[in-house]
Design a protein that fits this description.
heterodimer, A: mainly alpha, about 80% helix, B: mainly alpha, bHLH_dom (chain B), transcription regulation (chain B), DNA binding (chain B), transcription (chain B)
Chain lengths: ~180, ~500
């Protein structure tokens, strides 16, 4: 277990993932802090709640985007996430999801199909006919860019995604614990 | 001639050198094979048929005794010591007469598994140690084995199957491959041999069931692809092959023994397989029925259905596709193993569906944690202007301690405020927050109360990983601290200064 973990961790070249993520996230965080001053946080709970909610969302976005950028284009999920976020920023919040998702899916799906051999396509068709099990569908929803992947690639992406999520949680927790 | 064509394999079957753990009645059998056969076959059959009848009638065991003896004889003749009844007899029966010597050679290598498998049969009142088995075995053995066609077929079928059943346990991969290669040869050459089919099918089933992960993909694919046909063919063919020669004598002899013999032949052939229970049931039914060939024939269509139900592998159309499928499955299993290591608490879980559920739960819990932490960070007062570099250095130093912190206090403290985060305010991140939104309370409860505690502090669950991480933290300590210090006066220009610092980092780290 440790070997596989180490392998996945060290696969990201120096500097390690957490450092890259930490840096990006911190800078994004500072941007957010600067842009949305919480001077009145203690005064009005309602406004502060809204503010806090907004900031929460922004921070969450910042976390995911910084993580995706730290990973780069190496992973399907990071690419999908970057596409989604950039499309969201460009187009608008509401409609961005479908567009970005579609565009990311198209890009990723095309890439995927090109790599498939004849037998894989046959097997994939067979699997499509049978239908994936509900767990696979759920996982595809969870992992960004997972809809266009078969189970094999999906599991690989999930492994990396889980690692990155853990890193994210660790860094964010350390930041949250140390800041105040 | 069949015997000549099958000699290479027959010799392999019977020679101890090629296939280990197979002690056969080599000398007697090989000699017998060379003898002339058609008449001795019938005579052997008649002797077998008559002797058990005579023997069993005496002690009054009746049908059971006959079946026992017939099955035992078939197993014996087939040179497989793995047919445990003999070993069973050997162990349990005190009548280790001289004939046991004839049996002990093949019986010396009985696999324990087949013994256990056969124990079910034995305890099912089907196999009972027959003391009268031994005395008659000798006299029936030689004439029985003199028949080349029957003997060869029997050898091929039950020996191959049974031996591989046992051999599966004891042979290493290369030997198994050799065995299967030979079996494939036999089967490909002699497609009409029901025994061969039975053996191969059994071999396929036994191998696939007992030796998972054996690299004989081709063999297994072939076996799997042909298993169904062979099973059904085997059902018909042994009966076909045995019936015609026996019909003549059936006419002359009692009708009772022949169907029982057929069934016992079935049982003997398939006794080592996993379908032995069905066979035992059928044979026991046959024992009680005491009907003629009708019963055996009526039961012919039934076993194939049961066999197909029992067999797990179906629907593999061609070898290339099945191979690709197998490769894909192995890849998936590898990745599932990696995920199993990543996701805590999945070691005990087996099976794709449960593992997938666990993974999904874990990913959702991680996303919830990100949500919590972002909320916590949002509620924090921003004093980050000059704290960044200090934080970074502190973070690196204290990462170990931080990693040990439990998540529970954090979550419980942020629980009341967590509701904010679960309202999908922005469509941009609705895709991300959907998993949380859909479970507005459940993740909280799960996070705090449920027994996914091992998931919750993911850092706690990875003590070894945390030590690794802390070690790696220290490795980058200098670089990060230098970065932080370099950005001391320009907290806002983090963005700009990050890039030029990267080469520095690389050089120094």
């Amino acid at each position: 277990m440790t070997a596989s973990r180490r392998e996945i961790i060290t696969s990201s070249s120096s500097p390690p993932l957490r450092t890259r993520f930490a840096l990006r996230f911190l800078k994004n965080l500072m941007k957010i802090k600067k842009s949305t001053p919480l001077g009145h946080s203690s005064s009005l709970p309602s406004s502060s709640s809204l503010e806090i909610r907004r900031r929460t969302q922004l921070i969450k976005l910042a976390a995911y985007s910084s993580m995706a950028r730290a990973v780069g284009s190496r992973r399907v999920w990071s690419r999908a996430l970057i596409l989604k976020l950039s499309a969201g920023k460009r187009i608008g919040h509401r409609s961005s999801i479908s567009l970005s998702a579609r565009s990311s899916l198209r890009c990723l799906g095309m890439k995927r199909k090109r790599s498939k051999t004849v037998t894989k396509r046959f097997a994939a068709k067979k699997r499509q006919l049978e239908g994936p099990c509900p767990g696979v569908v759920e996982l595809q929803r969870l992992v960004p860019g997972g809809e266009s992947m078969d189970l094999c690639g999906l599991l690989e992406e999930t492994a990396h995604f889980v690692q990155c999520l853990e890193t994210q949680v660790r860094v964010m927790r350390s930041i949250a614990d140390q800041l105040p | 001639m069949e015997s000549n064509s099958s000699n290479p394999i027959g010799m392999d079957v019977h020679s101890n050198g090629q296939l280990p753990n197979n002690c056969f009645f080599n000398p007697s059998w090989e000699n017998s094979i060379s003898m002339d056969q058609t008449d001795p076959f019938e005579s052997a059959l008649s002797s077998i048929v008559s002797s058990p009848v005579a023997s069993t009638m005496g002690p009054g065991e009746g049908d059971h005794g006959m079946i026992k003896e017939l099955i035992g004889r078939l197993g014996v003749i087939c040179n497989s010591g793995e047919i445990s009844p003999q070993s069973y007899f050997e162990h349990r029966s005190s009548n280790n007469s001289t004939n046991t010597s004839a049996y002990t050679t093949p019986l010396n290598s009985p696999p324990k598994l087949s013994l256990s498998m056969m124990d079910h049969q034995i305890r099912g009142n089907f196999w009972m140690p027959g003391t009268q088995f031994h005395p008659h075995s000798q006299q029936s053995f030689v004439p029985f084995s003199t028949d080349p066609g029957f003997a060869e077929r029997a050898a091929r079928s039950s020996c191959f199957g049974v031996r591989n059943f046992a051999g599966g346990l004891q042979l290493n991969g290369s030997q198994r491959q050799a065995v299967t290669a030979k079996k494939e040869k036999v089967l490909s050459r002699d497609g009409n041999s029901g025994f061969g089919d039975a053996g191969d099918s059994r071999e396929g089933s036994s191998l696939s069931e007992q030796i998972p992960g054996v690299e004989m993909n081709n063999m297994r694919a072939q076996n799997d692809a042909n298993a169904r046909k062979r099973k059904s063919a085997q059902r018909g063919k042994p009966k076909d092959s045995t019936l015609p020669p026996k019909d003549s004598e059936v006419a002359g002899e009692n009708n009772q023994p022949s169907p029982k013999k057929i069934k016992s032949g079935e049982a003997a052939e398939n006794g080592s397989g996993k379908e032995c229970d069905e066979n035992a049931d059928k044979v026991s039914q046959g024992d009680k029925n005491q009907k003629l060939g009708k019963d055996s024939k009526s039961k012919q269509p039934e076993p194939p259905k049961d066999y197909i139900h029992v067999r797990a592998r179906r629907g593999q159309a061609t070898d290339s596709h099945s191979l690709a499928e197998r490769v894909r499955r192995e890849k998936i299993s590898q990745r599932m193993k990696v995920l199993q290591d990543l996701v805590p608490g999945c070691n005990k879980v087996t099976g794709k569906a449960v593992m997938l559920d666990e993974i999904i739960n874990y990913v959702q819990s991680l996303q919830c944690q990100v949500e919590f932490l972002s909320m916590k960070l949002a509620t924090l007062n921003p004093r980050m202007d000059f704290n960044v570099e200090a934080f970074l250095s502190k973070d690196i130093f204290q990462s170990r301690g931080l990693l040990a912190h439990s998540d529970f206090p954090l979550d419980s403290s942020s629980a009341p405020t967590s509701h904010y985060g679960f309202q999908p305010s922005h469509g941009m991140i609705s895709a991300m927050s959907e998993p949380e939104v859909q479970y507005p309370e459940n993740p909280l409860n799960a996070v705090i109360h449920r027994n996914r505690s091992n998931h919750l502090p993911p850092i706690d669950g990875f003590p070894e990983a945390s030590s690794q991480m802390s070690a790696m933290w220290e490795d980058d300590l200098q670089s990060v601290v230098q970065m932080g210090i370099a950005q001391n006066h320009q907290p806002l220009s983090f963005h700009g200064s990050a890039e030029p610092n990267h080469p520095q980092m690389k050089v120094k780290s």
